[in-house]
Design brief:
By secondary structure, the protein is α/β, with parallel strands linked by helices. 25% of the residues lie in helices and 25% in strands. It has a single domain, classed as Vaccinia Virus protein VP39 (Rossmann fold, 3-Layer(aba) Sandwich). The strands form four sheets. Strands 5, 6, 7, 8, 9, 12, 13 and 16 form an eight-stranded mixed sheet that branches. Helix 2 runs parallel beside helix 6.
């Protein structure tokens, strides 16, 4: 059973077609590409230091040609023998910041909300997590996850192409819930956190990673249109604003990281994401400001538990 009978039942909808009843003109192409990926006879899988696999495959050129058709790769990197899928985000940098919290994931059931292509879910398994359920409505990200999961081998990760509120999950509770890079995209951030809390076991933990605004914005920065070239950024809360919402919802702040500015080493244009990236998000003559004139993105982690 994968986490619970309820989750097993939800996953059964995707057992034949991992895209379910979703509509996208690219789905047939993605399914054909996935079918053409060779099965590797893995001699070594590393999910502790990276997401990488080594085997005796002679099909690296074929694999590279196929994976390039899943552009753009936002999260990663992923390594298959000598082939490096060098994604836009060097996600290992964020993962090291998470690890500084010292959280034990061993044996835990995890819900990764807005998981992207599953990079962090693979790293969670590398820290000993038992099973990870990813929720990701972006079908391109799902297709990338399916490709990597096929190359590395079937692991205890599953992905449902839905937002949390549309996932169908009603009763299942999780040991840990991750929400990374989502809070500032929520029209109702408080409701997002409240929903996460509803799916958390009594002694469970919520891990929030988000952009934080300077304290001069009091509770939150509210962009008039875009923020750092990103659409759908509704509120960029200050540290004070985040903690006020946590308190209001009965969530105890157990631990937090320092706030770290994003830089060109962590997010940049690559061959695997050849479109505009971080370099287009900041003012060319003043990298302390976004292209819209707001303070540049600074990110931090919060570890939360239900207040006793």
């Amino acid at each position: 059973m994968f986490i619970s009978q309820e989750i097993d039942d939800l996953l059964s909808v995707y057992s034949i077609n991992p895209f379910g009843d979703k509509k996208d003109k690219r789905i047939n192409l993605w399914l054909d590409l996935l079918d053409s990926l060779p099965l590797l006879q893995s001699s070594a899988i590393d999910l502790v230091n990276e997401v990488g696999v080594d085997d005796d495959s002679q099909d690296i050129d074929q694999i590279e040609s196929i994976l390039l058709q899943f552009l753009p790769w936002r999260k990663g990197p992923f390594r298959i023998n000598q082939l490096l899928v060098d994604s836009e985000w060097n996600s290992d940098m964020k993962w090291r910041r998470f690890q500084s919290l010292g959280i034990d994931l061993a044996g835990k059931s995890i819900l990764d909300v807005g998981s992207g292509n599953g990079y962090y879910a693979f790293r969670m398994l590398g820290m000993g997590a038992n099973q990870v359920l990813c929720l990701e409505p972006n079908l391109m990200h799902l297709s990338q996850f399916l490709a990597i999961n096929k190359l590395i081998g079937p692991l205890q990760i599953k992905m449902i192409p839905e937002r949390l509120e549309d996932s169908g999950i009603k009763e299942t509770k999780f040991d840990c819930i991750f929400s990374m890079g989502l809070l500032y995209h929520q029209r109702n951030p408080k409701e997002h956190l409240k929903t996460l809390k509803e799916f958390l076991k009594l002694n469970g933990q919520i891990i929030i990673e988000t952009i934080v605004a300077p304290e001069e914005y009091d509770f939150a920065l509210e962009p008039s249109d875009r923020y750092a070239s990103m659409p759908n950024v509704h509120f960029v809360h200050s540290d004070k604003g985040c903690k006020a919402i946590f308190d209001e919802l009965g969530l105890s702040l157990v631990m937090e990281t320092e706030s770290i500015f994003t830089n060109h080493l962590e997010q940049r244009k690559t061959r695997w994401m050849p479109f505009k990236s971080f370099e287009a998000a900041l003012k060319p003559d003043d990298p302390s400001l976004t292209i819209e004139g707001y303070p540049a993105p600074s990110r931090k982690f919060y570890l939360l538990e239900i207040s006793s």
